[in-house]
Structures
1.
Amino acid sequence: MKFLKMQGTGNDFVVLDGLRERLPVADWTSLARRMCDRHFGVGSDGVLIVEPSRRADFRMRMFNPDGTEAEMCGNGIRCFAKYVYDSGLSGRREMAVETGAGVLDLVVHARNGTADAVTVSMGVPEFRPDRIPVAGDGQVARDLPLDGVGADVRVTCVSMGNPHAVMFLDRPVAEFPLEQVGPRVEHHRLFPRRVNFEVVYRRGPEELDARVWERGAGVTLACGTGACAVAAAARRHGLIGDRVRVNLPGGPLDIEWDGESEILMTGPAALVFEGDWPAPEA
């Protein structure tokens, strides 16, 4: 099977084209685990599959390194858009992509015929606990204490098509023990579908620093849905206005949200290399 290795702000993916090539895959979970392995495979934060859609221009499926299928991936969908544009699958800069979180609209920013950045309409943030989901009562899950995670953790929860728990810090994000606390938050009993965990430091009204523990992947250099969740939670807390730059270890993402309509995320996408993977046994 032919594949591409792509990255968006350091969040890297294997891309497989199910439109131009028949993908003889019987077990996506096993394949994702093997391809994402950074020692024995290609190495990535997930596998993206390009498929046809009856609801949109294309369908994107995404599998985490642990083999679970994710509803959506913000950095992944930018890489997905760059692939379909640069490869000629779509000649239009505006397109709609079906994901597990619904159909998302996006705009490709191209230079010399090649996409170098993408703006994605990421949907309206969901704060209702039963829609995230978060176990418990109430209209919102704000400053929710989490016991048994090895630190004093209080989170504001939001869904961007996938669940997020955001914690605001009074110190730089590099000082928080994310590698130790992250897996405990991900698997906390309050999150029936597990959760992505973000720690955030406010630099100012237009700039936030964040680190992310991604559900099914661990610490990653960036997370697009995570950056949107961080911005949504920060705006609800009155920490920022309509526009903010979220600085992640892999680079910045620009987020716009007026507090009511869909969040817009703009960031880069790049091709790393192409290769061939031995076809798995049927």
2.
Amino acid sequence: MGLVETEAIVLRTYKLSEADKIAVCLTRQAGLVRGVARGARRLKSRFGAGLEPFTHVNLTYFEKEGRELVTLSRAEIVRSHFAWASSAEALPVLGYLCELTIEFAPPHDTDERLFRMVRACMEAAAENPSALASVAVYYELWVLRLAGFLPELRRCGGCGRGLPAEGRKVYATPEGVLRCEGCAGSGDYAFDPEAHAQMREMQAKGPAVWAESFGRMSAGGRQRLSELTRRLLRRALEKDLRSQGAAAAASGPAEARPGAGPGAL
């Protein structure tokens, strides 16, 4: 409790009265934080542009025991994405990724890996805006992995032996557990080999490198992998996010619409 100084990424802001804002931030030190920024809507606010969504800042706030909202006192910009975030094509995708982060990040629960992943994805997309749709799939997969909802990709859920990276078939249960050909049951589906290989690569590559690899997949492979990530997210959250449809439409044909695609994984 008391004064906290930490790196943060601003995810979303809301108007509060005529002069104030509420900002939702993913912090490195304290996880998801919601705070009141007094006077942030004034023309000569001390926060300046530091509370614009998708901005990486050094954040200072005061936390009082028993209160959910903290009081923000400073947001010093480390890196901003003003031009990039003003893109009509990018905004729906970025808004969706922020909503996804808010759903999976418990308030005031430190998660260093989640913070580093979100920061890396924002930086990769800022360096190459045309890769935003591909980075978004990487982002979805890592959120699932960190939350424990991504299937084990390297070992069979039945016998525990290593799954082949390519060549031999891999199967998936309706719950998303991967199995080797010998352990597959009658209700299991053939798991797309291209998607399996790409998902395994995700665990060893940064977002920029992985996005290039994802872009080299066939259009059908990209769509099947996108469909799979959306299906796993729906299963984890037990709902579709409000921003998901707009993000899928803005991402173009390589991204899957919610609910699209065959029943098989």
3.
Amino acid sequence: MIDFTNTEVINNPYPHLAELRKAGKPIWHDGLGLFLAPNHRDANEVLRNKSLGRIFVPKAPASEWDVFNYLHADSILDSEPPKHTRLRSLVMKAFNKNRIEALRPNILALTYQLLDAIEAKGGTFDVIADYAEPLPVKVIAALLGFPDEDEHLLRPWSQAIVKMYEVNPSAVHQHEAQIAANEFADYVHSLMLLRKANPTDDLITELAHVEEAGEKLSTHELIATCVLLLNAGHEASVNGFGNGMVAAHQNHSEWEKLQARPDEVAATAIEEFIRFDAPLQFFERTATADLEISGVEIKQGQKIVSLLGSANRDEDVFPEATTMDIERERNPHIGFGAGIHFCIGAPLARLEMSISLPELFKRFPKMELTDAPVRRNTFALRGYETVPARTS
């Protein structure tokens, strides 16, 4: 059975996932004690079925995991209706389509700043460190109201916390996640108190004051929401952009399309980036009642994982699924999830990439990737540490 911690699987999971899909139904994984849903139909069903919930089990001992636990138990991602409904309704009053679209001029300005800095470096740069990573971090930091001088704190906190979403996080990663959760929560809490006393035009201020039918966010819910927005607001952008760039370069006909017609192909290219090498691969849910998926019985309390990256390579849904096609017209990928847990950061990620991707190729039309990219040693959240490039 597939080993999600194996380096070979992490580097290229897709041949292994293709073997899983041959079963045509969910598969029991003895080692993990849960079901895997590798094809598109079943993975999509796992995300949408109301008899499956996102059930967070607090980690013990509580004295060490208290903050980490409430950051998840009181977040949209790890709650179910009616709590999820209340939280999402309150958050979306502040983090809505109009507010995201209003960020377009700011995103464009930040994109130009990063491109200017790359140009000033004189030829070589890192697609991740110099472009894909700083843009969404700067955007979400500005949106939430974090001071510019504190931006450098956010990505390390986020990366430490999200390593807990891997299959078997090490003791070191668990300890780092505890520290990051405590520091991040303390930071947001102090900023929240400041914004309540002195409101400004940022999302923390709005979340602190948002109300619907007499309901407001509790202190823990507000802190958990801000942490989730930072994580969801940039992880998909960074990893989706980096994964897509490497894949396009390896499929050089697609790279040439990006070089020749960046504005024209950007919209479909973004979706293909997310489909072809999904930034989120592993999303777990728990049966709240007995149910059946594709003839497989899942008992109450049993877990099943939606394998998003595998679903997005399902040959029954995507013609030539193993080939990148940045002009793919029909692309029903589930890279951002589906159902009530559809990624709240997806609209922001799409907006950022729709601006940053074509602008990069317009500024550097002869850009090429150079040394071998270095992949993060994680399966659930799939991305690269570094992607070396040159501007011409």
